[in-house]
Amino acid sequence: MTGQPALEAPLLSVRGLRKSFGDNVVLDDVDLDVQPGECVVLIGASGSGKSTLLRCINLLEQVDDGVITLAGLDITDPRVDADEVRSRTGIVFQAYNLFPHLTVLDNVTLAPRRVHKVARAEAESRALAMLERVGLAEKARARPDDLSGGQQQRVAIARAMVNSPQLLLLDEVTSALDPELVGEVLDLLGELREEGMTMILSTHEMGFARNVADTVCFLDGGRVLEQGPPAEVLGAPREPRTRQFLSRLV
Ligand code: ADP
Ligand code: MG
Q: For the ABC transporter domain, which residue ranges apply (predicted)?
């Protein structure tokens, strides 16, 4: 057959997203498209709205206005099943938020078993496969406190992936780590990206952003001021505010 290949529909589409906390407009008319397999990196100063955007996509915040569509489903429709949407958009936070009294395995199986009513044997076999994937199968019976920060964050990533999400959301997942532990987590994210995992991540690690991002998105005061390939946004930014932000990092 000849002709143009069909353009893929975006996996995630954000249109006209607005979110305020009181008088504080935190997201101001945000548009964002994420293609299947794409890695989008959010950069911007502290307070620019990166976490709030990720939390809106995971339905941890209620949006004031706008539409978020995931694989064709309007997830901002109040009638959607929020738990079901969350299982399709795994999220990992800066503080890994593992339950200290549960084993690593139980941390990973908790949501499938409690929220999604997956039988224990099935949940454990999925969880072990994910722990294997992040290189921590041998720690399944350990408690989070017995793990390094980097290992705990890798468990949190396994937990976010145990329901085979369509989209992985990662909010500054290396910011709380000692510098020597950052690499193992970034390496894992790089591998997941190579395997075709669609992800949106916020980070201050510009070297990493340059390496893994298909698209870099610069947020400034709740607006997407500039977005494009890393070579453009990081290498030759159009906007003075982007240049200013990047120059302050070095
Ligand atoms: P970033 O992740 O880029 O640092 P955030 O999304 O965390 O930015 O925050 C954007 C703005 O929203 C900040 O001014 C912050 O104080 C405010 N904010 C975030 N969460 C809340 C909340 N739950 N209640 C009130 N204000 C909030
Ligand atoms: Mg944040």
A: 12-246
